[in-house]
Each structure stands twice: as C-alpha cells, then as structure tokens.
Prior knowledge:
Blueprint: E1 2-7, E2 16-21, E3 24-28, E4 53-55, H1 61-64, H2 67-72, E5 79-82, H3 83-114, H4 125-132, E6 135-138, E7 144-147, E8 150-156, E9 164-172, E10 175-181, E11 204-208, H5 222-235, E12 240-243, H6 249-263, E13 273-277, H7 279-288, H8 298-305, E14 316-318, H9 322-328, E15 335-339, H10 349-356, E16 363-366, H11 375-380, E17 385-388, E18 391-394, E19 398-401, H12 411-419, E20 427-431, H13 435-446, E21 452-453, E22 460-462, E23 467-470, H14 489-507, H15 513-530
Parallel strand pairs: 3-4, 4-5, 5-6, 10-11, 11-20, 12-15, 12-16, 13-14, 13-15, 16-19, 20-21
Antiparallel strand pairs: 1-2, 1-22, 2-3, 7-8, 8-9, 9-10, 17-18, 22-23
Amino acid sequence: MKLTFHGAAKDVTGSCFLLNAGGKNILIDCGMKQGCADCDNTEFGFNPADIDYVLLTHAHIDHSGRLPLLVKQGYEGKIITTGATCSLLGIMLLDSAKIQESDAKWENQKGKRAGRETVEPLYTIEDAEETLTRLSPCSYGKPVEICEGVTAIFTDVGHLLGSASITVSVTEDGITKLVAFSGDIGNLDQPIIKDPIYLKTADYVVMESTYGDRNHEASSDYALELAKIFESTFIKGGNVVIPSFSIGRTQELLYFIREIKERGLVKTIPDFSVYVDSPLSIAATEIYSGDLTGYADSLAEKIINSGRNPLKFSNLHMTETADESKLINTDKEPKVIISSSGMCEAGRIRHHLKHNLWRPECSIVFVGYQANGTLGRIISDGVKRVKLFGEEITVKAEIYKFSGLSAHADRDGLLKWLTAISPKPKKVFLVHGEQTEAESFKDLIETDGYSVHIPNPKAVFDLSAEKLVFAGITPEKKPRGEKSKFISSSFQRLEAALKSLTDVVGKHRQAANKDISKLAGQIEKLAKKWDF
C-alpha cells in the first residue's frame, strides 16, 4: 500500500496523488500546474493506461485540469466525483480545452514564421468531451465500492459547489487503513454552500495548507461593506468594476447583491444595474441556480423554498456575446460590472478596465487573491498607469481590496478540520501550499503532538510499513517568508518574444550598418511606446 505525490507537493497547484492499494492504481485528483514559467503539464510520472480508477475532490482546474490529457494518453476508467462536480466539469473542461487549442494555434502562427515544428494542444475539445463520458456521479456520505477491498466516502468540505474530502478505506491481508484526502477545505460562513463537515477518523491524512500561516480578515456583514462601495461610487456617477473568478466567487457576489437590494442598502440608485460579463460565469450561475438539494446551506435553502432564486434579482443582465459586452460601456448610467478573469490576465475584464480605470468617479473592487506578476496585483498595489491593448491608461479610479471573501479555510479553519479527527492520525502529509505556509502550519501542529511530513514531488510513502521509501525530488528551497512569484501565461509569451528578439539582434552582428540602424530604431520606438 503506497502513496506517491505527483502534484501539489511543496506547491499550490497541480494536485495529483497516486494510491496503490488492493492491487489497483487509484488516482486522487489530476490537476493542472499553473502560474509558473517552468510548469510541465505534459508528463504525469506514470502511465495513464495503468491507472484503474480516478477519484476527484472538486472541479477547480488545479485539481481537474489534466483529466482530458489522462484520457487522451490511455486512461479508460471511470472518474468518480459528486454530482455537482460533474455538472461544473461539463463547462470547465470544455472551456479549458478551448484555451489549450487557442494557445497552440497562437504558438503555431508564431512558430511557423520562425521555422519551428508545429505544437499540439495539451488536449482538444474532443478529448474533453470524451472525458465527460467517463464521469460517475456519487453522493455525499454514501460509501462507493471502488473495487474489492477498497471503498471511498465523499464528505462535503465546503470549498466549492460539490467539493469533497475523500476517505479511502483499504483492506489488505486482513488489515484496514483509512487514508483521507482533504481536497481544498472551505472557509466558514460562505454563502450558498454548507460549511465543511469534519471527518471523525483517519489513519493517514493528505491535507492542504494554502493559508497555513495566517487567518483571514473577518467581516460581520459582507453585503453592507459592498453596499458602501457601491453607494459612494454611484453618488459620483461612476461604475463599479469587479474582476471575479467565474465559478464560486461570481455566484457569491450575486448572492450578496441580491441581499443588498432586498435590504435597501443602496439609496442613490436602489435598483442599480448589474452585468455579469463572462460566458463561463453565466454557465456556472445557471448550474448554481439549479437543483441544490444536498449542497445548499440553510439560508440558501430557505430562500429557495420561498420560491426565490438566491442569485437572481431585478436589473441583472447576463451578456453572452462580444457585441453585448461592448455595449455595456456605452451606457453612461452607473452600474456594477462583474467580469473575468479574476486576476485581470485575460478576458473581457481588460476591456472594462480600459474604459473605467482612468475615470476618478469609478471603482475597481478586487474580491480575490491577486498573484504576483498579474495585472490585478499590479493595479491593486497602486501603479499609476498601465498598458491595455497598446494604449497607456492612467489609474484614477478608486481601488478597493475586498479581502474578506475566501473559498479556502485559514489557519484556524485548517486546525479545526484536522483536530476533529480522533485519535490523531499516524501521519499528516501537508500539500497544496507554498513551502512557507506548509512549514508554518507544520510547526504549529507538531507542538500538539502530530507527526507531520511535507513531501517532495514524486515522494513515495509505504503506508503498510509506515515509512518513506523514496524522498522524491527536492525543489529549490525559498527563504522563509519569500513567496513564489506567479508568472502569467501572457508574461511567459512576452519573455519568449524577448528571446526571439535577442536572437534576431544577434544575427545582425555582421549585417549592414543601415540595417542595424533601422532595427535599432524600431526597437527604440517599441520600447518608448510600451514604457510605463
């Protein structure tokens, strides 16, 4: 009985754990590695055709995003997850596949001019569609027999609609071991979905540590805080622009805005317009507006049972097409615009920033984590001007960092989840966290007598013998307190373009002086245009 850490080991993305049990290879999550310059999503470290079963904690791409690649490379089994996760995967994997195809097309257009070989997308829409046929929905709390000697129970972990921790029970040679995979543990008091349900027992725990070193800022009334921002902006005649993640965060915002309108918290324009400008957000909102039996918390259930939709209200507009999106900024009436991407790296949000950042009467409200290097982080850190679509935009809008919302448990939430398991597990493996966060949480729980290990990528632990049999690949250790720098895909493209330009310059070493001067002039002109 062995456990191998193929992803999210000393990292926050790419969750992928291989449990060899009962003579079968069981994969828990198959996520995409994100936000790093050297991310390699093409290699698994195992043969996908050798995997017998896949168990999935939830739909976020860093946990599910390589499932189509797994299928493409030979996996033929089922993907077992909750019904709500199946619904969300129906839109998320197809959207991811479109991005893979689009990125490959862009690379090939550039590569053709440079004489490079054609690149293939990580996977295609057809691969994603085939993957969706493998989904096998299950319910919370009901044991699922995986194979002889192996069962799994999915428990609501309160992170996203349908999210779960998974407890795998394995019996070998008359000995039973319980291995719990936390998935992403949810924050308390999130709207719509229930709080995490705590596990009672486990021999081994594979646990996330995203916020293992800190607690979130608490708020007693999110709707009231948002309403104050809306009111002050509308008084000035401006728009409120909210970069938001399409799944989970956008629906939470709609929930709060419905509450704002019902409580009459905005006096200037009580029935203000709200635009959700993202096809993926719209599709996700329809799923969240469907049958939430077994998923909704008591307040959401109460609203639903009264015949209302907790995410719908008057003057709510869903803009599907690009033409509809463009019309939003031609309307001068103050409004709220919710658009993706959440870190402003791509999508329609960049158009809305172009039209509203320079207006001092407008407000930009960040409601999610903004990673280093992203446009969202640059703006939220107070930059005075940015480049958007080749145009220099002055930042005069009011910038708000609404940090109260988080889908992840903080340090105390993680501690509460872990300490509910009794007696203490034989070993706690901390994953899905930067080294600093994981080490901080390790120090905290070791003082309470827990045996803790932060695995390296590819590390192998023998659960039967209770020992580490392969230490894995030791990543470069960052000094405590130093964060990994997020490198967006757009910036990676920019760095690649710089390398190409450097190569071109090198080839001009023996060129005619007039050609060298011409190239130098063009580069100087380009640098001046894009400097800010």
